[in-house]
Amino acid sequence: MPHDTTAINKQRQDLSQHESVWLFGYGSLIYKVDFPYLERQPASIEGWSRRFWQGSHDHRGTPEQPGRVLTLIKTPGERCTGMAYRVSPDVFEHLDHREKNGYLRFFTPMTFTDGTQAEGLVYIATEDNAAFLGEADEADIAKHIADSVGPSGKNTEYLLKLSDGLAELGVTDPHVEAIRRHLEPMLQDEP
Ligand code: SIN
Question: Mind telling me which Gene3D superfamilies this protein's record contains (predicted)?
Answer without folding.
Answer: Gamma-glutamyl cyclotransferase-like (3.10.490.10)
